Amino acid sequence: MKIIKTAVSAALAAAVSFSAQAAEVEVLHWWTSGGEAASAAELKRMLEERGHTWKDFAVAGGGGESAMTVLKTRVVSGNAPTAAQIKGPSIQEWGDEGVLADIDELAEAEGWDDLLPEVVAEAMKYDGHYVAVPVNVHRVNWLWSNPEVFEKAGAELPTTWDEFFVAADKIKAAGFTALAHGGQPWQDATTFEAVALGVGGTDFYTKAFVDLDADALSGETMVKVLETYRKTRQYTDAGAPGRDWNLATAMVINGEAAMQIMGDWAKGEFTAAGKVPGKDYVCSAAPGTLDAFTFNIDSFVMFALDGEDASEGQADLASTILSPAFQEVFNLNKGSIPARLNLPMDKFDDCAKLSGADFVATAETGKLVPSMAHGMSTFSSVQGAIFDVVTEFYNDESISAEAAARKMLSAVQSAQ
Ligand code: BGC
Asked: Domain for residue 317, yes or no?
């Protein structure tokens, strides 16, 4: 690991003056939807205010699968960007490759261990050293709905999966799409993990997607989860296959569809469209998951690069990302909550305030769980194995839930 030393004092002074060495800071990310792009623009702006040049390395594709493929090619060819949007256990995989830069000196100088919740700080370290900086905390187990469509259909907002199907039948009968969905593996998995949490509960969820326990992956509860999950497909529209997530959100925004199950980056789309929570749209926990929180922490990992200017650029980028001003403006646009503890939340809406309170509360009750669909709970090979089984099962009615559960176990076992 490369250690950024000389850059730190400059980074600390950077809030008031430009760094000694201006750098071209190339940042890989997949924030290309309306809400995402508005958020990324704030990072570019603040980094440029510190005297650096932003080189945008955006690779479109929700969930980041395409971005990760492109990144691997770049790093293998010895041409790593300054920083990349990498999160969860993947940070450990990249650490094992020996290509990351250690940003401990900045982290110590700024007291990151005290600024960050423990679960966040730990995820940013490789071998005990900070190699990444957190941008936010996204909650994934949300249901986004359009109250006007519910009213027209005479349906009630569901709090359990049984209620979901009652409401969805009414909405469908009234001529609307009940569930806006984009049929892409990561979106399929996002709905699937919400069903797993709602039907199976947090203990089951953790056993299946964190411990990779054989009984949980292939047993009765998983069968029930899979059956419930595939039933949701009947309430999506013919245009769902391949649709981007933000276009599914747009269907809820414009009243074509009643609901979407998606992480709170969807709120960034509502915000970008000028919509107000509680009035134009409603955020509520995905059915059956009120007391739980599936977390997804976006972070930027720094690559080991030659040259002092590169290190200064990285230190300034990391310092900017954790600054209170950035954490506020970025997360107001992105739909997430700040990764830093104790920041004022008065500018945030009720959805974000609820998320903030639940993040703290679930950390205490043990119901704070990492999102499988967003790379927080397993290494990427295992995640990929689960995605394959889930998407195949979702699209092929001839596969029984029992067969899919057995396949899930064998796929996970061979991916480890
Ligand atoms: C990322 C979010 C992003 C979403 C859709 C998630 O995996 O964590 O930041 O908005 O994918 O692209």
From this structure: yes
Strands 257-261 and 142-145: antiparallel
| Minimal-distance CA residue to ligand 1 atom 11 | 63
36 lines ligand 1 (CB under 6 A): yes
Alpha helices in 138-283 (DSSP H): 147-153, 161-173, 185-195, 201-209, 214-218, 220-231, 245-253, 265-272
pLDDT of residue 21: 82
CA distance 161 to 105: 48
Q: Is 349 helix (H, G, I), strand (E, B) or coil?
A: coil
> Whole domain around residue 39: which residue ranges?
4-137+297-355
Query: Of 298, 299, 331, which is best to mutate to test ligand 1, by the most ligand atoms within 8 angstroms of its C-beta?
Result: 298
| Residue 261, C-beta contacts closer than 8 angstroms, at least 6 positions apart | 142, 143, 144, 179, 181, 190, 191, 194, 286
Ligand 1 pocket check for 358: Cβ under 6 Å: no
Q: Is the CB of 182 under 6 A from ligand 1?
A: no
How far apart are the CA of 330 and the centre of ligand 1, in A? 14
Please check whether residues 334 and 271 belong to one and the same domain.
no
Give 153 Cα–ligand 1 centroid separation in angstroms.
Answer: 31
Asked whether residue 12 falls in the same domain as residue 121, the answer is yes
Check if the beta carbon of residue 6 is closer than 8 Å to that of residue 311: yes
Tens-place pLDDT, residues 190-211: 999 999 999 999 999 999 999 9
What pLDDT digit, counting tens, does each position of 117-166 carry? 999 999 999 999 999 999 999 999 999 999 999 999 999 999 999 999 99
Which residue is associated with the tokens 């080991």? 304
User: According to the model, what pLDDT value does residue 8 have?
Assistant: 52
Phi-psi region of 276 (alpha: psi -120 to 50; beta: other; left: phi over 0): beta
**pLDDT at residue 297, as a whole number:** 98
How many structural domains are present in the chain? 2
- Domain contains 362: no
Q: Which of 27, 28, 30, 190 to mutate to test the pocket of ligand 1 (most atoms within 8 A of CB)?
A: 30
Domain assignment present for residue 233? The answer is: yes
The enclosing H or E element of 68 equals helix 65-76
Of 313, 334, 355, which marks where a domain is finished? Answer: 355
Q: Is the pTM of this model over 0.70?
A: yes
